[in-house]
Fold:
Amino acid sequence: MTYTHAQVSAANSAVDKYRSGEDGEIGAALAVVGLSAERAAREAKVRDDMIRVAHRAGASLRQLADVSGLNRKTVTAIVESDVPA
Structure:
């Protein structure tokens, strides 16, 4: 794989953002936690978007709760926050 200078620079900036000036193991751990949190947030957004799509297509709240691992109250809140994609 090859990476552009811009991609490498963006990756370095993302790591530095979470390191909080810490060096060594603590800084590395903070960077991993921060980057993981960003990824989890992106994945949750995709999951929520797909819950809305499935609900509009006819999936029940119970079905959506079962497959997502969320409770029906949470699924209902996601569906009711239906934002145009």
User: Anything to note?
Assistant: Residues 14 and 35 are 7 Å apart (CA to CA). The chain has one domain: 5-80. The mean pLDDT is 92. The helical segments are 5-19, 24-56, 61-68, 72-80.
